[in-house]
Specification:
The chain is α/β, with parallel strands linked by helices. The chain is 36% helix and 15% strand. An 8-stranded mixed β-sheet has the order 5-4-6-1-7-11-2-12, sandwiched between helices. A 4-stranded antiparallel β-sheet has the order 14-15-16-17, covered by helices on one side. Strand 4, helix 5 and strand 5 form a beta-alpha-beta unit. Helix 10 runs parallel beside helix 12. The chain starts with a strand and ends in a 5-residue tail after the last helix.
């Protein structure tokens, strides 16, 4: 039995054609949906990677400790003899969790490198970029000494920030396909995380699919900083520019998803492998005042695509709520591995509708948690240590899907009952990682990713 679980950073389902978008931004997703299950109402358990990734790997609302020490999907499978591998370049995750248990191979491309490793990391990423360029150009040009020296000087002087922030989809896919070729005969679980739709947008595609004119890194850098620091000043045209660049990153990622799926087909048999594709969270374009994913857990940040091709399940559409906590128990059951008691999710294929609980908000120093029942959404922002101030939001999703009209003051009884559905520990600060405390190379990458504007 083999599982490939793909997560793509910061993907809004309403920016995918499979969810009705007018651009076909991720056509590779059709390869999963053609014979798989489309979970149309899926949600992350946190609005940013620092909460969401540990949660879905451990099936626990607060999963950082379990990710480091177990239980998690990786530890459960590894202890049962399943080969495990993980590939990501998410600096937030690397800064949040110092070590990850249960993976036989865990490749983070050194995004967690400390200040002493900065020079080595920068050289490594520059080499990868040069290798990618030479694969496209004619070998005689790529290996010509003067051309290589000119490129290296240019790359150093221009400080190509995109390649310092994370590793692009091409490089990640190259590593994963090589691993798949080496482990084609194993029972395995392989988690792959792509960063490319994350800010800074539009830096990976050589020719952004949905941008008609030219765009340079300096324009992108300036636009990203202003959108992060002064979202209210972004014009309508600039907002559309951000969306065009973001959509282009989705298409770029899709091209490498196709390559990954080709490798799964060649080495494992696509129809014989559990293939899941989702996102760690969504993305915001000032729906509630911010860009990127700093805000409270509104639906533009919690809603995620979810497509699963399961060898033992027929093609179907599921319109009942699911949460990403359900991924780990689904994978365990597929591998006939006992689901750890600590897991808080259930198999995606268990028929019942379920509520979604989420926590976290990068824009708030106070604890934030939410519960979504399908018809209603309740968000609570707790008080600071020793304080009593509590902010409550309640939205009637049937009549206010955009979460614009807060009715918590008029529907106090309903708000109280929904608050009871949120585990108490999520309403208390848990020492969540403060990006401002990072230093050296990690701080630089967090700045480029928009966490320290």
């Amino acid at each position: 039995m083999r599982t490939v679980m793909v997560t793509v950073d910061a993907v809004r389902p309403d920016h995918l054609a499979q969810y009705g978008y007018d651009r076909d931004t991720m056509p590779a997703l059709d390869r999963v949906l053609d014979g798989g299950t489309h979970f149309e109402d899926a949600f992350a358990n946190g609005p940013h990677s620092g909460v969401s990734i540990p949660s879905f790997l451990t099936s626990q609302y607060r999963g950082r400790e379990a990710l480091a020490n177990g239980p998690s999907v990786a530890t459960a499978l590894s202890e049962a003899g399943v080969t495990t591998a993980g590939f990501h370049s998410n600096t937030m995750l690397a800064n949040e969790v110092e070590s990850v248990a249960g993976f036989d191979r865990f490749e983070d491309f050194d995004v967690g490198a400390d200040e002493d490793d900065h020079e080595r990391l920068e050289r490594s990423l520059s080499d990868r970029l040069f290798d990618a360029l030479t694969r496209v150009a004619a070998p005689v040009v790529g290996n010509w000494g003067p051309a290589k020296r000119l490129y290296e000087r240019f790359a150093s002087e221009s400080q190509q920030f995109s390649f310092q922030a994370y590793v692009d989809a091409e490089t990640v896919t190259d590593e994963v396909t090589a691993w798949l070729a080496d482990h084609a005969d194993d029972d395995f679980f392989c988690w792959v995380h792509y960063m490319d739709p994350h800010r800074p947008y539009g830096v990976d595609p050589g020719d952004p699919a949905f941008v008609d004119d030219t765009v340079d890194d300096e324009e992108i850098r300036e636009l990203m900083i202003r959108a992060g620091n002064h979202p209210e000043e972004i014009t309508r045209f600039e907002r559309e520019r951000l969306i065009d660049l973001y959509d282009s990153d989705l298409r770029y990622t899709s091209e490498h998803l196709d390559r990954l799926f080709d490798a799964v087909t060649d080495h494992c048999g696509f129809d014989e492998t559990l293939v899941a594709v989702t996102a760690d969270h969504g993305e915001e374009f000032r729906e509630h005042g911010h860009f990127f994913h700093r805000n409270r857990p509104y639906d533009e940040l919690l809603g995620v695509p979810l497509a699963v091709s399961h060898p033992e399940q027929d093609r179907e559409r599921v319109r009942k709520q699911r949460e990403l906590l359900d991924l780990a128990p689904t994978v365990c059951e597929f591998h006939d591995v006992s689901v750890p008691d600590a897991f808080e999710g259930r198999s995606l294929y268990a028929g019942a509708h379920r509520r979604v609980v989420a926590s976290g908000a990068l824009a708030s120093e106070r604890p934030v948690a939410a519960v979504r029942t399908g018809a209603w959404k309740y968000i609570q922002t707790g008080s600071e240590a020793g304080g009593t101030d509590v902010d409550r939001e309640l939205y009637d999703l049937d009549n206010d899907a955009a979460e614009r009209s807060n009715v918590a003051r008029t529907e106090t009884g309903l708000a109280d009952s929904l608050q009871e559905l949120i585990p108490e520990e999520l309403l208390v600060a848990d020492g969540e990682m403060a990006p401002g405390e990072a230093s050296g190379a990690t701080r630089e990458r967090l700045e480029q990713l928009g966490y320290l504007d």
